[in-house]
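Case study 2.
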Amino acid sequence: MTQDEHVVLVNAQGEAIGTAAKSVVHGVNTPLHLAFSCYVFDGEGRVLLTRRASHKRTWPGVWTNSCCGHPLPGEPLAEAVARRLSYELGLAAESIELMLPGFAYRAVMQDGTMEHEMCPVYRAVVAGDPRPNPEEVGAARWMPWKEFTDDVLSGLLAISPWCGEQVPLLAALGGDPAAWPPADPAGLPPAARVSHRSAR
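Prediction:
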């Protein structure tokens, strides 16, 4: 990734209002911008957890969902998910489907650094094990979905703030992640909706 990679800035209605360099976006006054989260599953219904690299700007060393990232300006979100799965984890997805189109959050670290994102959530299915990129991922492990959700909801597993907010919403879709119905792309923020398509 290059230092001049740009992210899409959005207003409260999710409309694109410009771009900014990713390298300068995350700070104490982080502007609202477009992102995504992805939960990767294998054929056994296990979810892939990752620990953020220790040098990450936000929440370093914290366990979280499989993959997060930002679409480039004009890039469909599903394509951004596929790009980051390859870059961060060396994975090629068999399917990538939208689950939570309207998810958004704001979280602040103890030092004041903020995440402030409209962050649709995706489910991906893969075959094979990850090959983590140490620039992004400190560790990765598979975990049965029910065990993961139980541990997050009971507070036994320390997890990133966005993942902590997403898990109850995903759990509400049903106990079997393979049976979750894909969401309507019409629910995406306008900045992401125009060029969205499901990747398979």
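The first strand starts at residue 6 and ends at 10.
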